[in-house]
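User: Round two. Same drill as before: sequence, then structure, for each protein.

Assistant: Same drill it is. First protein:
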Amino acid sequence: MLRLLREATGLIAFVRTVQTGSFSAAARSLGATPSSISKSISRLERLLGVHLFRRSTRLLAMTQEGEAFYDKIMPLLEQIDSSAETVQSYRAPAGHLRASLPSELGRMILEPIFTEFVPMYPEISLSVGMTDRHVDLLRENYDVAFRVGQVEQAGLMCKTLSHLDMTLVASPSFLRKHGDIESLGQLKNIPFARYVADGKPYPIGFVDGGSILPSGRIDLDSATAIRDAALSGVGAAHLIKRTVQDDLDRGLLVELLPHVKLQTVPFQAVHASGRLPSFRLQLFTDFIATLMRSSARE
């Protein structure tokens, strides 16, 4: 047992390589070099007397022995890692957090993060990415990603923080050109600035379970770009209502079919499966959850 504990570096390198899928990605997340990761794992393999990975120029896959070893060692390392978290609540929370926020909704969240969370926890530092792209938490070394919509990627733990109301909008200039929209049939025949993820357009869902796949005038991968397209009159748009409420109040956008109830979408905090959230991450997630709930009541 003591021999294995002396290879703690190899154990960590092995687990992180499994999680990230490559020596290079594991090295980036650990602040090491790919060669040092490979050498650490090789020393561990010699100690165990088995190959943990099948290596080739194009493939890095676990052997049967590697899978069995990972299943045993991963929970133990997590328990060791989480033991520090049990005492963190007795001191001021500190450390670094790397978070990903969706573009347009994130724009609304940033101000209270700056004015409330940062002053409240001066020992916590933040790196914040703003994108609607579904980041790879392990490969890109994110502690948490806040995402709109369902998360279908395996190996992730999700916590729903709120459900967001959606709306259909268009600019006054768009309506002057295409006429007032008074039925779902008309909705199917007008051009949209569509949200597209992984090459697939996002459907418009209704509370009754039905849906419409809008016809595309222009396809975009961020809510900010879709809002801009709607404001310019390029197309109608299906957006989170709170992100365009100010535009609606100012008359820059008009709500289409306000009597039709649209399906809400979940707003979720996502972190890698097998990683217990740190105390600072719990504080940050709880802050965002409280913020979303309070803004929903306004």
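Second protein:
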Amino acid sequence: MFSPFGDSMFTIIPVFIGIVAIIIFGVIIFAIVKGIGEWSSNNDSPQLTVPATVITKRTKTSGGRGDSSASTSYYVTFQVESGDRMELRVKGSEYGMLAEGDFGMLAFQGTRYLEFKRGISE
């Protein structure tokens, strides 16, 4: 049977699969290196405790298709006295205890949330 591509089609497919595999592994390696860099940067940052207000809360759900389970990440945006805002990832149990408008002392280290102690708002 005549093929317009000849035998080159059988050599292109393995090369294409190899390129896709390299891209996938590259993305995975990049994510690991980025995560280690952020973890190291947070460890090098000082632990700070500042007055802050809870501005907003949000969730991000991923997965949950077919037989896989869903995973939910919880984020809270805090505003400090200078007016700067920062969004930090928190545990689900902490997320449920915080309400928009809460005022208190926020403890964090780099981009790592440590705790929020609710205080009396003025």
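The longest helix spans residues 8-44.

User: Perfect.
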